[in-house]
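Incident log, entry 3
Record: HTH-type transcriptional regulator MntR (141 residues)
Problem: checksum mismatch between cached and fresh output.
Input:
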Amino acid sequence: MPTPTMEDYIEQIYLLIETKGYARVSAIADALQVQPSSVTKMVQKLDKDEYLNYEKYQGLVLTSKGQKMGKRLVYRHELLEQFLRLIGVNEENIYKDVEGIEHHLSWNSIDRIGDLVQFLKEDDLRLEQLRQIQRNEEEPE
Ligand SMILES: [Mn+2]
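Fresh output:
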C-alpha cells in the first residue's frame, strides 16, 4: 500500500498527465509545494515500487498499476469534495478538509460515502430536507 505522501504524488502525477499530457519534476514540485529534489527522490521510490517509469531528462510515465491507482485517488478526492459540498460545507474549507481526510479513510468508507452522495443526488427533496435541518439549526438572529 502506498503511504499518504506517495498517494499525493501519484494523484498529482496522474492529474498532470491527464491535463497536460506529461508530468515534469518541476510541475510536480509546484503542485505539491515541495523541493524538486524531494520529487526526484519520491519519483525514484515510485519507480522502484512499479507505479511509474522514470528516466532522468526524459520524464516519467505511469505504469498500469500507477494509472489504476492514480485514477482511484483522483476519484476519491473528487468524491469527497462532492460529498462535503453536498452536505453544505463552506467552499473555502472543502479543499483543505479533503486533503486532510482522504488518506485516512478505508475504501469501504469511500464506497459507502459514494452511496450517500448518490442517495442525496437522486432526489432533490432529500437535499432540501437536509438544508431544512441546517436552517433550523442556525442560531436565531
Ligand atoms: Mn487530494
